[in-house]
Amino acid sequence: MVTVAYGASFEKTIRKIRDGRVKNRVKQQIIRIVNDPTIGKPMRYGRKQTREVYIPPFRLSYCYDEQRDLLIFLDLYHKDRQ
Question: Could you tell me the pTM of the whole model?
Answer without folding.
Answer: 0.89
